[in-house]
């Protein structure tokens, strides 16, 4: 049985209950998420061959500090960086280091800022220099998968409708959906209930209700869906070394659909690719 609770009265930990947020909370999330979106916009100007992922990490940290926010990943469960940078066959949680980006790479940059106690969580793919058509197509399919998942969000639907929309489209495009990671509730907590699977059936999962806030962040592979986590305990890669991509938005369920809190103010939700409105 799924329990729903008014967020203002919920304890400050993940109890498994689904929080329902009010208008004031939605405004707090707008501010945090738009700060994250502005940072991701700014990164579009600096991602190029030769850039170290450590330089991306420092940029994110400085951007947050300059705007009164703190990177949520820094020191989270022992993680020592302010962002995740996942390149080519890295599915998620790639750790920034001193290796430079190369022409033809694709890199996911995942940023979460904590602003006034609210978590703004989003990620985008960035093509580095000139990428092959197969990589460009994967970015297109992954972004469209995200937007189709978002399009399924409305009160009365179930979380499985999000997964079904993503899986149906991605697999029709001869790509695969990673099962090992999922979206999640977010707000005052970085990770909260419910889990948002990126595959499934429309009649499965908790009912979506007005006031819920969560991420949708499909990871789509050109090859098979299987992944493995490397010895560092964080970096997840495709087992078959195929390319992987991910886009992520934070959304809030409204009376007639949803609000995307992390939309790019500069129209750069798909940096390096033609403008696309979903």
Q: Nutshell version of this structure?
A:
By secondary structure, this protein is α+β, with helices and mostly antiparallel strands. It has helices spanning 23-43, 53-66, 133-151, 159-172, and strands spanning 4-6, 18-20, 70-71, 84-87, 90-92, 106-115, 118-127, 176-177, 183-185, 192-196, 213-216, 219-221, 227-229, 236-238, 244-246, 249-253, 258-260. The chain has one domain (23-258): Creatine Amidinohydrolase.
Percent range of helical residues: 10-25%
Count of helical regions = 4
Largest sheet: 4 strands, antiparallel
What is the fourth-level CATH superfamily?
Creatinase/methionine aminopeptidase superfamily
Rounded to the nearest angstrom, the radius of gyration is 17 Å
CATH fold descriptor: Creatine Amidinohydrolase
Number of distinct beta strands:
17
The helix-and-strand class reads alpha+beta
How many structural domains are formed by the residues? 1
Assembly state (oligomeric): single chain
Q: What is the name of the CATH class?
A: Alpha Beta
Low-confidence stretches: none
> Which percent band covers the strand fraction?
15-25%
SSE succession: EEHHEEEEEHHEEEEEEEEEE
Going by CATH, the architecture would be Alpha-Beta Complex
> What would the principal axes of the Cα set say about the shape?
globular
| C-alpha end-to-end distance | 34 Å
**Mean pLDDT value:** 96
């Amino acid at each position: 049985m799924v329990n729903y609770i008014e967020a203002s009265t919920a304890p400050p930990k993940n109890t498994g209950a689904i929080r329902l947020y009010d208008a004031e909370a939605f405004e707090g999330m707008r501010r945090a998420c738009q700060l994250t979106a502005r940072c991701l916009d700014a990164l579009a100007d600096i991602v190029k061959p030769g850039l170290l992922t450590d330089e991306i990490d420092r940029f994110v940290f400085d951007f947050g500090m300059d705007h009164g926010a703190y990177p949520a990943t820094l020191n989270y469960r022992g993680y020592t960086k302010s962002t995740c940078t996942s390149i080519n066959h890295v599915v998620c949680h790639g750790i920034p280091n001193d290796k430079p980006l190369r022409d033809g790479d694709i890199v996911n940059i995942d940023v979460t800022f904590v602003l006034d106690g609210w978590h703004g969580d989003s990620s985008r793919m960035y093509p580095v220099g000139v990428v092959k058509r197969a990589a460009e197509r994967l970015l297109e399919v992954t972004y469209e998968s995200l937007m189709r998942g978002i399009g399924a969000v409305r009160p009365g639907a179930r979380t499985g409708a999000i997964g079904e929309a993503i899986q149906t489209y991605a697999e029709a495009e001869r790509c695969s959906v990673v099962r090992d990671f999922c979206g999640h509730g977010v707000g005052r907590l970085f990770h909260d209930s419910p889990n948002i699977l990126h595959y499934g059936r429309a009649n499965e999962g908790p009912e979506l209700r007005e006031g819920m806030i969560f991420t949708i962040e499909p990871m789509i592979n050109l090859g098979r869906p299987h992944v493995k986590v490397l010895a560092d305990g964080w970096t997840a890669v495709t087992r078959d070394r195929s390319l992987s991509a991910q886009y992520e938005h934070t959304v809030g369920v409204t009376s007639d659909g949803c609000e995307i809190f992390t939309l790019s103010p500069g129209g750069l939700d798909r940096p390096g690719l033609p403008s696309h409105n979903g």
